[in-house]
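Q: Make up one entry.
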Amino acid sequence: MLNKNSGFTLIEAVVAIFVIALIITGVFTLIQRTVMDRAFAASQLQATYLAQEGVELVRNQRDENWLNGDAWDSIDTSEIPSSVTISGKTFTRGVNIIDGPAPDKITASVTVGWTERGRNGEVKVISELYNWIYW
């Protein structure tokens, strides 16, 4: 036999709706965070490639200087683009050349920065370059 009072009460229904809404909110927050992290990781990868490109441009200048008979360590960083836009996102690139303790060594430090949905990112690549003719 069925009891007339066997249904859900209003309080039980409100609690059930609250729990379901809480679960759905958590799932959507997790999805949103995953999408943001994936976009940030993609930008970080692009920045890493741009930083490595900066080191390669310095290395190319060193080699061209040697081939042209110029001082191998006279690197002109103004020729390296300081701002690069990829897919509508702007990356800033700074190149710093540090003379080494030895006369045959310089250090190229390239820093690439960007902003992704309010989060700032930065990648730094450091490479030691040598006067390979000095050896």
